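Intended use. Records like the one below are meant for learning the mapping from a protein sequence to its folded structure. Do not use them to infer anything beyond what is encoded.
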Amino acid sequence: MSAILSSILIASVGYYAEKFRITTLSFCVAHAALAGASIGLVLRVDPTYSGMVLAVTSAILLGVILPRIHLKEVLTLSLFSFFSAIALMAIYLSNTTVLATTTLSMVLWGSLLAVDVQKLIMLSLVLTAFAFYLKAFKVQIDSIIFDRELAEAEGIDVYFHTLALLVFMGVAIALALRITGGFLIFALLYIPVASSLLVTDTAKRQLLASIAFASLSAVFGFFVSYVFDLPIGSSITIVATTILLISAAISKRGSVVYE
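Structure written out for the chain above:
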């Protein structure tokens, strides 16, 4: 259940991140979540909550600061490297007891046993909240996807919705770390979205296809992980990439520009 819920949530957030053209920002948020989870290992607190705090904080800061400065791409890529360095430094500073536990395995590449009922409930609540947000602001969000500049000209607060999406992304990624692991969270963020862009050309179908491909990846990845005793994050990534390759092979749309 957790694998399916997290895949639906992450794929949905990843789809809107691609449509909002904030892919690079989402990389930073994902690595901030990994850095926060790694810091949690050092401080001996729940990595989910420490990852969530740093991910949401970085999402808000990025959303506030980047629109006001030049060289956005340079700063974003620099922060991407910074958060990666923090994550590796925190893991290095963890004592040998922490390094030997399954907690570290969960942070890095996910675990079948890492999710409890509390985290499952949190996943359900965040997914429900995101669905309500999309429903409540459907007109505004669709306008931003159609034409960002035109939406701004019509008075839609593009800045607010971009910031809201980044915050949802931070929470979703922090919760999904227990399933996919920090280094493979991008598998659910963008591979299902890329597959959907290859097989259909309407926004609604692309969203549904992204969710379907992510769910299939989670379910089959779960069984591959369970049967062959493999890390669940890696298993999900392999299945998701296989779906992407099949989608590319059968695609009739030709080349697709994916940014």
